[in-house]
Amino acid sequence: MREGLDVPTMRRAARSLQGVHDFASFATSLEEAESTVRVVHEARVNESDSIVEFCIAQNAFLRHQVRNTVGQLLRVGLGRCSVDEFVGLLSHPIAGTAGPAAPARGLCLMEIRYESSLPFAS
Q1: Torsion-angle region of residue 11: left (phi > 0), alpha (psi -120 to 50) or beta?
Q2: What is the largest CA-CA distance in the chain?
Q3: Can you tell me the distance from the alpha carbon of 44 to that of 56, in angstroms, rounded to the nearest whole number?
Q4: Each residue of 88-110: pLDDT tens digit?
Q5: Is the pTM of this model over 0.90?
């Protein structure tokens, strides 16, 4: 286990992200978004050796959503935020309340999937 981080508790918090939620709390700029509701297909925290990895797959992302989510998960792992408080950010969304944002370094976009038939390509 990564020293200082409660990874099992981070995993529990990450699992709460799965499903349909309003992610306004996890976004920093909402003026571009028509809706802050997103569908998370998978959210998990993995650990190997000295690396803790957060993976998320969803239908669309808000500005800084992943960085703010990782920052909030780190607060959970450090005991500064409970899983219930983390879930509360989803249950009672208030713009920009999650975080602080994790640094951009270390973030890696793994894959982009598009629907098989794109309406604008017809």
Answers
A1: alpha
A2: 53
A3: 7
A4: 999 999 988 998 999 988 888 88
A5: no
